[in-house]
Specification:
With 331 residues, this protein is α/β, with parallel strands linked by helices. The chain contains 13 helices and twelve strands. The protein has a six-stranded parallel β-sheet with strand order 2-1-3-4-5-11, with helices on both faces. Strands 7-6-8-9-10-12 form a six-stranded mixed β-sheet. Pfam families: LacI, Peripla_BP_3.
Length: 331
């Protein structure tokens, strides 16, 4: 096995210098660092980061738990976070969570065992096991794109306001039979509240949630055939793709036969000219990174109260919504 002593010998430096190159120290010149890294490449040297973290009590790693790997927003945000933290010599350990909160608990336990210095995660709902684990760990915990625990900082998109806005947008154009298709239930309140404010009767077909992946097309087709909505809101790119397949099968044209609004800007919504609720991915990822770095670099004052931040969305109007005539049988 190649050791740091072998690298030091080939590079013509001390073992301590090799150690400094792989630490967060700035006491090594660029020329020396290049010599050490070149020697390490030639020898196939892999530094023992676990041993180093035990010695320094710093792992310089951050755990990130992504809840929905099928939603491009999550892994796009993860890419931004990874890039931003690397600027400060922190690495991200990425973990994927299923729709079950116990999966989150296991992922958090694994990350804590890896000695991460902070954790960013998306909670599905409050779980006493998760709360107890994070409280006892003394590791900074940040909720992203969700908020189930008031004790921890959170950064969320204001999806309630966005869903309310798009619902009112549809109502103003004569739509009363509106369907929201969402894998989870986190956006339905904005829809239901806005319908109620406009004195539009609620019914079972106003929202389809949760939406299992294995038979989502059949569920959507049955719902559209049964409830005959004049407008459908597709949350996530995966839902939009499935919806487009179903509408094609049913010979529905957009917006002539049905109006469609998408959540999250993506190539499909652009290609099909779908009105869309968009998220600023770079801004979301940068804000999450800022929260993490505030803790990691000790920029927060001790005893600060939990911070809960809502980020605004954007409304991208295209040509996928048809204005209905008041009194039409379709309204």
């Amino acid at each position: 096995m190649v050791t740091s002593r072998d690298v030091a010998k080939l590079a013509g430096v001390s073992v301590a210098t090799v150690s400094r190159v792989y630490s967060d120290s700035n006491a090594v010149t660029d020329i020396t660092a290049r010599k050490v890294l070149d020697a390490a490449r030639q020898l196939g040297y892999i530094p023992n980061t676990v041993a180093r973290s035990l010695k320094s009590n710093r792992s310089r790693t951050v755990g990130l738990v992504i809840t929905n790997i099928f939603n491009p927003v999550f892994y796009q945000v993860a890419a931004v976070i990874t890039t931003e933290l690397e600027k400060f010599n922190y690495k991200v350990i990425l973990s994927f969570n299923s729709t079950y909160e116990r999966s989150l608990l296991k992922n958090l336990q694994t990350l804590l065992a890896a000695r991460v210095e902070a954790i960013a995660f998306t909670p599905l709902f409050e779980d006493s096991g998760v709360l107890e684990l994070l409280n006892s760990s003394n590791v900074y915990s940040l909720q992203v794109l969700g908020n189930a625990y008031q004790q921890f900082d959170s950064i969320m998109c204001n999806d309630y306001a966005a869903t309310s806005k798009l619902t009112q947008y549809l109502i103003d154009r004569g739509h009363r039979n509106i369907m929201l298709i969402c894998p989870t239930e986190d956006r339905k309140e904005g829809l239901l509240h806005t319908l109620a404010v406009n004195r539009i009767d609620l019914y079972e077909g106003n929202y389809i949630s949760p939406l299992p992946l294995e038979n989502s097309a059949a569920i959507i087709e049955d719902a559209i055939t049964k409830y005959r909505p004049t407008a459908v809101v597709a949350v996530t790119q995966d839902v939009l793709t499935t919806l487009m397949i179903v509408l094609k099968k049913l010979h529905y044209k957009i917006p002539e036969d049905i109006s469609v609004i998408a959540y999250d800007e993506n190539p499909l919504s652009q290609y099909e000219n779908i009105t869309t609720i968009g998220h600023n991915i770079q801004y979301i990822g940068t804000e999450i990174s800022r929260f993490l770095l505030d803790h990691l670099l000790e920029r927060n004052a001790p005893g600060d109260s939990p911070r809960h931040i809502f980020l605004d969305t954007t409304f991208i109007e295209r040509s996928s919504v048809k204005a209905l005539t008041r009194g039409s049988k379709d309204t």
